[in-house]
Amino acid sequence: MDEPCQKLYEKYSEYAKLFEILSNPIRIGIIVTLAEGPKKPKEIREKLGVPQPLLSQHASILKEMGIIEKVDRFNVKSPCRLKDQKVLEILKAAGIEV
Question: What element of type H or E holds 82?
Fold first, then answer.
């Protein structure tokens, strides 16, 4: 593969990774919940009805992708918030109410 095609492929791979991240209902639920504003993990867990370990697993994936973040990164119990608002536009385009 020539260099321009390789760069394009790498760019599209990042987009594909984002869509892979958004293919999970729990992660979509976390994003939609945080669209309302910052929430503590307990609030998100109660709204989605998922156990804490499962919520942590999916929240970690969203943090790694730069989609969510802690309001105070030094406080373990700090609320989370959306870091990347463009993901809301993607969900809206898919017909998801946010």
Answer: strand 80-82
